[in-house]
Amino acid sequence: MTPPQAAQAPAPQTVLVTGAGKRLGREIALTLARAGWNVAVHHRHSVADAQQTAADCDALTGRPGSALPFFADLADEASVRALLPAVIERFGAVAAVVNSASTFEHDSAESFGFAAMETHLRANTGAAVLLAQALHAHLSARNGQGAVVNLLDQKLWNMNPDFFSYTLSKAALEAANTMLALALAPRVRVVGVAPGLTLTSHLLSDDKFAALHQQSPLGRSSTPEDVAATVAFALSNRSITGTTLLVDGGQHLMRFERDFSLM
């Protein structure tokens, strides 16, 4: 009698993570690599960081070449349109996009101008929509299904007037979540993930960050690991689309008059 053949494991799927060289994007890339994904590590200026993230992802998967760095300027339409085809050329197919990269520059209602608005809308909103559009076209040609995860911000549910253009761009992306979920179904799911205060910046001392991180109903806001785990969940759960998962320890339930970085 011929012994039954063992079932072959499915081929790893590929995900493009923008801004994956550093900070939250890096943590997302590592978490997805740990889960078995091939990872396209997008970067703009952070070439060395993206190369290191790709090497670390390779070590986690145990598959050399499972993660590779890719350049794109998300404020430039032609550069964005070239990004997914470049990833497809190297990996053959892409199942998901995680839009993690964000431009985050300070302005206010008083200093607002078209230049600041356009800078944020191009990188934070337009690029994410173009990549969702490209993924849908790619999957339609292959008769496949996939997902887009857009990183948002809990401040959309807890408004303050700081970082005016950044907030406008994220509000536009949150609205695009709904429209894209309708327009791209059933081929592509679109899910938002909205962290609270997750990483410190040059605007916060370590002590100040620690104190602000505790200001939530749960006594802690989100960690990079929390956010990355939620992204992985959103990619794996095929029943979620057109909604946003808030990962912030409940910070959106509290009233903050200023942005964390200015408190």
**Largest sheet report:** 7 strands, parallel
* Unreliably modeled segments: none
Query: Would you identify the CATH architecture?
Result: 3-Layer(aba) Sandwich
- CATH class categorisation: Alpha Beta
Note the total helix count. 7
Give the total of domains. Answer: 1
The CATH superfamily is known as NAD(P)-binding Rossmann-like Domain
Instruction: Assign an overall shape.
Output: globular
DSSP E strands, number: 7
Assembly category: single chain
The percent of residues in helical segments reads: 40-55%
| Strand coverage percent | 5-15%
Characterization of the model:
The protein has 263 residues and is α/β, with parallel strands linked by helices. The chain has one domain (14-262): 3-Layer(aba) Sandwich (Rossmann fold), CATH 3.40.50.720. It is built from 7 helices and 7 strands. It has helices spanning 23-34, 47-61, 77-91, 114-142, 164-184, 206-213, 224-236; strands at residues 14-17, 38-43, 67-71, 96-99, 146-151, 188-195, 243-247. Strands 3-2-1-4-5-6-7 form a 7-stranded parallel β-sheet, sandwiched between helices. The model has no long low-confidence stretch (mean pLDDT 93).
